[in-house]
Amino acid sequence: MTKDSERLDFGTVLPLSLEEEIKHSYLDYAMSVIVGRALPDAKDGLKPVQRRILYAMLELGLRHNQAYKKSARVVGETMGKYHPHGDAAIYDTMARMAQDFSMRYPLVDGQGNFGSIDGDPPAAMRYTEARLTSTGEEMLTDIDEETVDWGPNFDESLKEPRVLPSLIPNLLVNGSSGIAVGMATNIPPHNLSEVVDALCLVLDNDETELGEILSVLPGPDFPTGGVILGRDGIVDAYRTGRGRVVVRGKAEVESGKRGKGRILITEIPYMVNKTNLIETIAKCAQNKTINGVTDIRDESDRKGLRIVLEVSRDADPEVTLRQLYSRTQLQSTFGVINLALVNNEPRVLPVREMLRIFLDHRRSVVRRRTEYRLRRAQERAHIVEGLVKALDLIDRVIALIRGASDPNAARAGLVEELAFSEAQAQAILDMRLQRLTGLERRKLEEELAGLLAEIERFRAILGNEALLDGVVKEELLELKKRFGDGRRTRIADDVDETLAEDLIPESEIVVVLSRDNFLRRMQLQDYRCQLKGGKGVKGAQPKGEDEISLLSVTTTHRDLFLFTTRGRVFAIKGYVVPEPKTGKGKHVGTFIPLEEGERVVALRDSHLDGAKFVFFLTVQGIAKRIEVGELSNLTRAGRRILGLAEGDEIARVHLTSGGDELILTTAQGQALRVAEDEFRPLGRQARGVRAIRLGESDCVVGCDVVRQDQQMLCISQFGLGKKTAYDQFALHHRGGSGVKVMNLGDRTGPLVGSWGVRDGDELLVISGRGRVIRFSVDDIPSLSRIARGSILVRLDDDDAVADVSVFRCDPEED
């Protein structure tokens, strides 16, 4: 044997580009997945595997009024005849068609465990049984009357329907979801009654506007109920085929025992796993991202879903509920993608197009069914006419048959001698003798009359489009009468947009700024009121040189104004300031855009209390008054409201009424009482005018409005302080040096500031080393302006007072 003879003959070898081969192969695979597996047909709303399961169940005789059969029998029938892709995929698909929480109108009636809304998988197919539901049967109605096209199965041994007749508008009422190659579909379910009404509208007027459709088909209707928030997403989805529908579970706030509230959840959004939802709520409650939840109970049973959340007495159940909507799957978004196959091509369909495609399909089914029934009626009428004629010629017919040598000769004789057709002759030969009676003759004549009437009606339907549409409409209305039910999902027009502050309980907080410019907040209630002279509690323990610089008492829902050395002001919400258990918080630069070298020098609660002006006083004694409207609509972007000389910066910010008197205080213990109208209102770019003349190395540390029911509180660096009546300070013009306000020395240190206080007020004093003390103003002695004061805060040797905040316990007085 030669080497040449050992060579194999591979035939002609064609050179192919690898890129082209991969492109064609991948496109073939992609189209196979798109058409053969993942996407539903726009006519019957079914994927191939769903269609094959339903047809296999019909062949097995599993109608809604017949006995159940094992699911394994259905799976085997489907896989062996039509769908050779694995039993697990077939069984999972059949199980989903039996789940009332997945399908708005289930197509399979399952007996046994077919899964649950908790995400439990179905029992093994050998344990469960199934049959068609009434709606499932309607998908197959008239399939044996040549209403749809057929094609070979995978091995060409059998025929299978390419699409089902589908009296049910399944694509809309049950929806569909699937992921193909490079595309996905996500069609929501709808209410059958509403879809039928919309179909009737389009049937009566093919140019029906979207607004008219929306009047009868307002939106999706999910099997699990819930509430759709707003109609904009629905309109987008119906108009373009794509949209975002926000679905919220149904929850109510109830009063529980011992003053506690509780939240009762009875419906959850579509396709949300109940177990996962409960786990998420528990985790959020543990992490304190949801406030007040003390217990979670799943009380769901066969009657319906019921999740109970117990809420603590000090929590607001309404806030907790808003947090649930925002931070769990109790509110979710359903992304609508109306992608379906139209003549085996994937298309994104507006709702009007979906309705038209289904109506065209039903017209085709009714037309083909009518043609089939017409043909059958004509064939039967022809036979009956022959039988009636044979009865008229009965003696000759009997004689001819008796004289024939065999059935073929008798048939030929009937055709040739008595002018019967082949079909009529065969029917006469098959006729029983009892048909010769008078009663049977009348039955044949009545049957013939009925057949002729049917033939006339069928011809009228086929010859008149309006009559054909009338049949389609009549069947749809009958379908609505049999299976229509009430809407489960409510559509809320008045959407209460949940703002960020709605998710956070309003509480009084202390916002602290460190000397290293780190912001953090603490709960005011954490600081109990003490007697003066105490050492306080650890409230904002700094690390290293990170000492406390400023603080302000505000609430989580109010704006906090931040004034900077460059004469700019910013506003942030109290709740955005972090509340860390440990650490320094976050750098102020993460909240507001600071320039190089710029720092925050004042924190001010945004509660304006009817004020008309904002009064600024700089460290160098320059004052400026602007209208309070300049602080309106402030954001994190900030606004420049004060022009400053080089080296100067804001020392104090105060709100005034326009006719107040002010008292200005310096670090070296000087105070000047001056009328507000000495300072005319200026624009945002102005620098201001001189307010107080300062001594060498002195600076402004305090500014307050003089009120009749208040006294002046002064606190020094080392924690000494006192109250002094305002009538001890005479009124002067601006630009003066003022008078002595406190006897300062080495034991007191310079003044930290001055504040106007009244009986019943409370102080929050914070030291540079993070020591915080809260005590009542009533405990501070009232002394003359030249007195030294008493010890208010006992500090360590290396510590000093950093800032003071005055607040009222009664919010109505604040």
TrEMBL record:
Its EC number is 5.6.2.2. Its main location: cytoplasm. One of its GO terms (cellular component) is DNA topoisomerase type II (double strand cut, ATP-hydrolyzing) complex. It holds the Pfam family DNA_topoisoIV. Signal peptide: none annotated. It is found in: Cytoplasm. GO terms for molecular function: ATP binding; DNA binding; DNA negative supercoiling activity. GO terms for biological process: DNA topological change; DNA-templated DNA replication. It is an enzyme of class 5 (isomerase). The active site is at 127 (o-(5'-phospho-dna)-tyrosine intermediate). It catalyses: ATP-dependent breakage, passage and rejoining of double-stranded DNA. Residues 39-503 form the Topo IIA-type catalytic domain. InterPro entries: GyrA, GyrA/parC_rep, Gyrase/topoIV_suA_C, Topo_IIA-like_dom_sf, Topo_IIA_A/C_ab, Topo_IIA_A_a_sf, Topo_IIA_dom_A, Type_II_DNA_Topoisomerases. Keywords: ATP-binding, Cytoplasm, DNA-binding, Isomerase, Nucleotide-binding, Topoisomerase. NCBIfam families: gyrA, PRK05560.1, PRK05561.1. Belongs to the type II topoisomerase GyrA/ParC subunit family. PANTHER family: DNA GYRASE SUBUNIT A, CHLOROPLASTIC_MITOCHONDRIAL (PTHR43493:SF5), DNA GYRASE/TOPOISOMERASE SUBUNIT A (PTHR43493). Heterotetramer, composed of two GyrA and two GyrB chains. In the heterotetramer, GyrA contains the active site tyrosine that forms a transient covalent intermediate with DNA, while GyrB binds cofactors and catalyzes ATP hydrolysis. Few gyrases are as efficient as E.coli at forming negative supercoils. Not all organisms have 2 type II topoisomerases; in organisms with a single type II topoisomerase this enzyme also has to decatenate newly replicated chromosomes. A type II topoisomerase that negatively supercoils closed circular double-stranded (ds) DNA in an ATP-dependent manner to modulate DNA topology and maintain chromosomes in an underwound state. Negative supercoiling favors strand separation, and DNA replication, transcription, recombination and repair, all of which involve strand separation. Also able to catalyze the interconversion of other topological isomers of dsDNA rings, including catenanes and knotted rings. Type II topoisomerases break and join 2 DNA strands simultaneously in an ATP-dependent manner. This is DNA gyrase subunit A. The gene is gyrA.
